[in-house]
Amino acid sequence: MKSALITGITGQDGAYLAKLLLNKGYHVSGLIARRATPTTWRLQYLGIANEVDLINGDLTDLPSIVRAMNKAKPSEIYNLGAQSFVASSWQQPVLTAQSTGIGVLHVLEATRLADCAIRFYQASSSEMFGLVRDPIQSEATPFYPRSPYGVAKLFGHWMTVNYRESFNMFTCSGILFNHESPLRGIEFVTRKVTDAVARIKLGQQKDLRLGNIDAKRDWGYAGDYVEAMWLMLQQEQADDYVVATGRCTTVRDMCKIAFDYVGLNYEDYVVIDPAYYRPAEVDILLGNPAKAKKVLGWEAKTSLHDLIEMMLEADLARVRAEK
Ligand code: NAP
Ligand code: G4F
Known about the structure:
Layout: E1 3-7, H1 12-23, E2 27-32, H2 41-45, E3 53-56, H3 62-72, E4 76-79, H4 88-91, H5 93-114, E5 119-125, H6 148-167, E6 171-176, E7 179-180, H7 189-201, E8 208-210, E9 216-217, E10 220-221, H8 222-232, E11 240-243, E12 249-250, H9 251-261, E13 270-272, H10 290-296, H11 304-322
Parallel strand pairs: 1-2, 1-4, 2-3, 4-5, 5-6, 6-11, 7-10, 8-13
Antiparallel strand pairs: 9-12
Helix pairs in contact: 1-8, 3-5, 5-6, 7-9, 7-11, 9-11
NADP nicotinamide-adenine-dinucleotide phosphate binds next to helix 1 and strand 5.
């Protein structure tokens, strides 16, 4: 039986990936950081909380990762754990550098110490393109990060490449563009919008305060994207891949899709609040997933309309259940 260790198993992608791997017959372990309140709600939502082995540890604590590796004995490791909210990375740059950047090195080192044959996946990010150097970003596009988060991800990305080239390890970096789902954290813009639209529709909220609604993102569905992660580790050669839909939309138009779905006009509810502007913005991200399609046979299946509808239905159900 194949065995996988997932860091960040309590996050959006960790939960979907755990479900995918369980369905493929893997034994799945996950590194879980100690928190004061439970963090397994996503695993419960997907009905898999009792099917995975949760091992205590923290990305900033190398010995805990070494212990987790010894316990899980994985053939594949997926490093998804990170401080992943870009806006927070200006408020907590050191914590972000330690978990999102140095944390990658900890997991790579723990892998090298345990067994160089273990296959390693790193959750890299389109945020590394930042102030974009090409209108459509591919694996060949130079990086120009615009946030402490982007800088930390870039460190993790190059460490992943370096361990492949230095130690001949099977290390892959997935450069994933934004991907969302009903399990997305509430502070990210798509989920902030779908939660607010549900609350406004059901009479529990009056308006929706947003920052830069002219920003453009290439949004896909997390359930599609975890398949690309798994496919990368099943190839003969380790490599890096852009994972994206190849289409981008403004935050404004994404809001319109969400409000239209419940029969409301977004212009009546959206209030621009400069408190949500970022010190340095990434104005546009648009990925070219041609290599992932050619080599992995992967392509995004879910349209932005279908994704927003899926998220809205889940948020409408949640808000109704709160009543
Ligand atoms: P997420 O929902 O924010 O999940 C992050 C996970 O990391 C959570 O399980 C969190 O644990 C864990 N974590 C944070 N700090 C940790 C630490 N010090 N030690 C151990 N675990 C820690 O993020 P996501 O959307 O699933 O994204 C997964 C990965 O892909 C992240 O690395 C993210 O940066 C990257 N990424 C995401 C996207 C996207 O659009 N979603 C795009 C590109 C790259 P708690 O539950 O305890 O907080
Ligand atoms: O949803 P966001 O916070 O996602 P962002 O910053 O693009 O980062 C996400 O995608 C990255 C991949 O490119 C991941 F690596 C990262 O971990 C994360 O998952 O913001 C999207 C856009 C930004 O331009 C932001 O300025 O929406 C704009 N925005 C406008 N008003 C807002 C808001 N974002 C948030 N979170 N909240 C607002 O009120």
